[in-house]
UniProtKB/TrEMBL annotation:
PANTHER family: BLR6218 PROTEIN, OXIDOREDUCTASE WITH IRON-SULFUR SUBUNIT. Keywords: 2Fe-2S, Iron, Iron-sulfur, Metal-binding. It comes from Sporichthya brevicatena. The keyword Iron-sulfur applies. Gene3D superfamilies: 3.10.20.30, [2Fe-2S]-binding domain (1.10.150.120). Residues 79-156 form the [2Fe-2S]-binding domain. This is (2Fe-2S)-binding protein.
Length: 162
């Protein structure tokens, strides 16, 4: 059975893009292999490790589990490569916090960690609250190096500055 190729368009890091690809291809492969955006990492492919975490219309999503056919032409995808453009300055406050708290060790999971933390901070702030320990407990990105204490401190620091 042959799979038909279709044109798929969306906004990636502030720029309209189009790809000609089969409907069932996961967004992670569209981003990495077709568009050359390598910030979202492949870890598990089933939304468990969350190394691929990016934003879809400002909300946390895992492109490893979303087929390109689910993305609309008006959808805005932001990866770690486009995050700084969403804030003032050369880096996003979460990226600055990551540096301040020396969060990264091997660094593989860090793009997904930063994107998940940013989405969490934005969601909590939108509800009119401050980041709590319970909020931090909802971050489920896997870090094989175990830098979770530094991640938590960096998130609290960034949240206070956003």
């Amino acid at each position: 059975m042959e799979t038909a190729v279709a044109r798929h368009s969306f906004v990636l890091n502030g720029k309209k893009v189009s790809v000609d690809i089969e409907n069932n291809v996961r967004m992670l492969w569209v981003l990495r292999d077709v568009l050359g955006v390598t910030g979202p990492k492949y870890g598990c492919g089933i939304r468990v490790c969350q190394a691929c975490t990016s934003h879809l219309n400002g909300k946390h999503f895992n492109p490893c589990s979303v087929p390109v056919s689910d993305i609309k032409s008006s959808d805005r995808i932001t990866t770690i490569e486009g995050l700084a453009k969403t804030a003032k300055g050369s880096l996003h406050p979460v990226q600055e916090a990551w540096i301040k708290y020396d969060v990264a060790q091997c660094g593989y999971c860090q793009p997904g960690q930063i994107m998940a933390a940013t989405a969490l901070i934005n969601r909590v702030k939108k509800s009119g609250r401050k980041i709590s320990e319970a909020d931090l407990d909802t971050l489920r990105n896997v870090c094989r190096c175990g830098t979770y204490p530094r991640i938590r401190e960096a998130v609290k620091y960034a949240a206070a500055r956003m």
